[in-house]
Amino acid sequence: MAEEQRGKEEQGNFTDSLRDIQGEYIMLTELYEKEKSYGQRLTDMMKTLQDEVDSTISIRPDAIGAQCREAYLVSEAVVVLVDSSGNRISRPLYRLPAATIVSVIEECTPELRRLLFEKRKSESNKVRSLERVLKELKKAQATFKQSRRDEVEEQDEPKDEMKDRIEAKPVQKEQTQVAPRPSREGFAFKGSFGEKREVPGISP
Fold it and tell me: Is the pTM of this model over 0.70?
């Protein structure tokens, strides 16, 4: 009876152990997936930053944890190792162990920061230069427009003066001058048309 009880306990412990192992394996698999995902995301970030500065970054061999003479992080976030014989080995950063990925990123961060600062400073100077030129061009454009406006006003001014003069001058109506009619008392015809004489007027 005791042996049977002991067998059941051992079977139960075995089942519990299998269940625990299965649970640990599931959690370990999830951790592997997260490690791979995080490593890929960190690599993509480094790739973006390095593409921006477009520069190769030197890495201390100790940060790699491998026997090499030189190490570099080049474009596309690829780690290049140079051994003592001068042979080169390249591997994508995301394929390295998680500890190595973190070490490489910590090693490259100060240099990336410096390169990004220098590039931002250079771009800032370019933008200020463009702004200065743009302001000068705006001033020149405004001056040109004002000059053209003044020229148009000067050309229109004589026409306006002439119009004002015409409107200000009164219109004089032509008066027909009628010759005064001679008085009947002044003279009278006597005799033929070829002979005209002044004679005293004939009183009625």
Answer: no
**163-182 core/surface letters (b: 16 or more CB in 10 A; e: else):** eeeeeeeeeeeeeeeeeeee
Q: How far apart are CA 197 and CA 192, in angstroms?
A: 10
Up-side HSE of residue 194: CA atoms within 13 Å toward CB?
0
Which value, in Å, is the radius of gyration of the alpha carbons in the chain?
Answer: 56
129-141 pLDDT per residue, tens: 999 999 999 888 8
Distance CA 196, CA 188 (A): 8
DSSP 122-186: HHHHHHHHHHHHHHHHHHHHHHHHHHHHHHHHHHHHHHHHHHHHHHHSPPPPPPPPPPPPPPTTT
pLDDT tens string 85-95: 889 999 999 99
